[in-house]
Amino acid sequence: MKLGRLKFVALVSGCILLVVLIIALIRKDQGLDKKISDNKYNIVEKELLKIEPISGKKASEIKTEYDITNKTFIVYLEDVKNLFREEQVDYGSPMVASINYEKNKNKVKVNVKLKEYCTYSSEIKDNVLYVHFEEINNKEEKLIIIDPGHGGYDVGAENGMIYEKDINLSIANYVCDILVKQGYIPILTRNEDVFVSVEDRADFVNNTMPKLFISIHCNDNADSSAEGTEVLYNIKDTESEYNSKWLSEIMLDNIISSTGTRKRDLLVGNSIHIVRSSKVPVALLELGFMSNEGDLALLNSNQGQKRFAQGIADGIIEAMTEMENKNE
Ligand SMILES: [Zn+2]
Q1: How many angstroms is it from 174 CA to the middle of ligand 1?
Q2: Of the residues 99, 182, 294, 304, which has the maximum number of CB atoms within 10 A of its CB?
């Protein structure tokens, strides 16, 4: 009897202990949930995407890629083993439409799909990567889209190990640097060495409606004596006096005076998708021939690229100034 009572007491105590433990666990879970949602709340306010590296990793080593025309921001998390938790990537940005994960062994590729065309900026604080997205304001008076031709597996023209895609991007970046200092808002169709289809480039332009659209390319010819700069325009753009041909002429003159390349012609570029489908004044620049020794030396050197960039920026500023003066 005594033993039976002891058993009963032990059983009741055991049950109470179990209930207390369960409650504690539930509360702990709630605590965790609350913490995550609190984080989300903070992030909503800041319109951020937040990426926490796993322990022992540095946020500065997280590799990201931005495909602006596809509205996709990609985060590569490497060597994650089993440590990856989806909570490591958190967002409250109203610009984020969805996030999906592609797991492959120790790597996770996080695809962040955005609702609108955005620019982004990122910063690292306390070993956490924060990414801020901002919708591109298509009423912006100073918006200019610069398109570095080709990218990724599409290398463009080539001469040995020198690829057109790299020259285009490098010059485009220099152009942006100059324009930003002058108060313009230049946006690139690609910031990195990624493939972007011509359809996506054109859609991006037609949805964001910049004041001007400048596409940067280098030329190529079987005859290595062919040299100089030419610009392609949209012959069907005739509604305004500030049209594609008007812009192309300004661009050609400015590039020639900055670089001293041989002046070739203005050409009808309507066989090219981005030229014929652009709803804003477009100029497709063929800066020089990669197949020509003199042109290539200029295209493939820092100094030469800066001179091309200066000519392009001068042309953009001249065109913008003309349009702005007319509007006054
Ligand atoms: Zn090209």
Answers
A1: 18
A2: 304
Measured in angstroms, how far is the CA atom of residue 296 from the centroid of ligand 1? 14
Residue 110 CA to ligand 1 centre (angstroms): 31
Cα 21 to ligand 1 centroid, rounded to whole Å = 67
Give per-residue pLDDT as tens, 60-69: 888 888 899 9
The alpha carbon of 303 and the centre of ligand 1 are apart by a number of angstroms equal to 21
Please tell me the least confidently modeled range out of 81-90, 151-160, 210-219, 295-304. Answer: 81-90
What letter would DSSP give residue 193? Answer: S
Ligand 1 centroid, distance to 158 Cα (angstroms): 10
Tokens found for residue 173: 């970046």
pLDDT in tens, 102-133: 888 778 788 889 999 988 888 888 877 888 88
Q: 156 alpha carbon to ligand 1 midpoint, in Å?
A: 5
- Domains of the chain are 48-135 (no CATH), 143-327 (3.40.630.40)
Q: Is 154 exposed, middle or buried (0-12, 13-18, 19+ CB in 10 A)?
A: middle
Question: What's the pTM value of the predicted model, to 2 decimals?
Answer: 0.80
**In this structure, are residues 146 and 172 in contact, taking their beta carbons and an 8 Å threshold?**
yes
What phi-psi label fits residue 62: left (phi over 0), alpha (psi between -120 and 50 degrees) or beta?
beta
